[in-house]
Amino acid sequence: MSIKNMKKEELELLSHKDLTHMLLEENGSMNTAELFKTITDLLELPKSVFETKIGDYYMALSTDKRFILLDDGNWDLSNKHTSDKLKKNVEDEDEAELDEEAEPVKDEDIDEPDDEEDDYESGSDDDKYDDSDDDLKDLVIIDEDELEMDE
Q1: How many Å apart are CA 76 and CA 73, to the nearest integer?
Q2: How confident is the model at residue 117 (pLDDT cuts 50, 70, 90)?
Q3: What is the CA radius of gyration of the chain?
Q4: Given 3-state DSSP classes, what are the helix, strand and coil percentages for the chain, each rounded to the nearest 5?
Q5: Number of H helices and number of E strands within the chain?
Q6: How far apart are CA 120 and CA 123, in angstroms?
Q7: Domain boundaries, the chain
Q8: Helices 32-42 and 16-27, interaxial angle, to 10°?
Q9: Which of 23, 44, 47, 25 is nearest to 35 (CA)?
Q10: What residues pair up with 76 in beta bridges, in sequence order?
Q11: How far is Cα 95 from Cα 89, in angstroms, rounded to an integer?
């Protein structure tokens, strides 16, 4: 049964992804905006729904393995494409990620330390660290046995 021949009540029972699947079967590949606009028109939803929910719709298509995003920006059904093409796309993406990671560091990107002395005063009392154990001289260590005896 064609999606355009279905009653609104029947369409409302289907998820947006199921409606997308039916649209792609009937019409072939379409971009995200065309797909979602068609769905909102079929369900007679207000324009504000299109504007606020298109990002969620895109994410839903991205995570559903039934759909594939083609190089031209259109969505299509995964089962219409061979696994070789899908595998090639994944391998290309992996190689692109590796190329980005393996980009050599240029000399101008490396910060070299300055040979000039620091601008702060080394004789300031606030900057000196006191390593003495003066604050620990009144510390008393109690064994667990002594602690139990006090109770």
Answers
A1: 10
A2: low
A3: 33
A4: 55, 5, 40
A5: 6, 3
A6: 9
A7: 3-83
A8: 110
A9: 23
A10: 68
A11: 10
Beta carbons within 8 Å of 52's beta carbon, 6+ residues apart: none
Q: What tokens does 124 get? A: 């300031």
Using alpha carbons, select from 134, 151, 133, 129 the residue that is nearest to residue 142. Answer: 151
Give the position of tokens 């068609």.
Answer: 38
Please answer whether residues 60 and 16 qualify as being in contact, where contact means their C-beta atoms are separated by less than 8 angstroms.
yes
Q: Across the beta sheet with 74-77, what order do the strands follow?
A: 30-31, 74-77, 67-69
Global pTM reads 0.52
At 76 the three-state DSSP class reads strand
Give the distance from CA 32 to its chain's centroid.
19
pLDDT exceeds cutoff 70 at 124: no
As a whole number, mean pLDDT of residues 30-37 equals: 93
Please name which of 23, 19, 11, 115 lies closest in space to residue 60, comparing C-alpha atoms.
Answer: 19
For the 3-83 domain, the top CATH level (class) is: mainly alpha
Beta bridge partners of 23: none
**Closest to 17 (Cα-Cα) out of 51, 54, 66:** 66
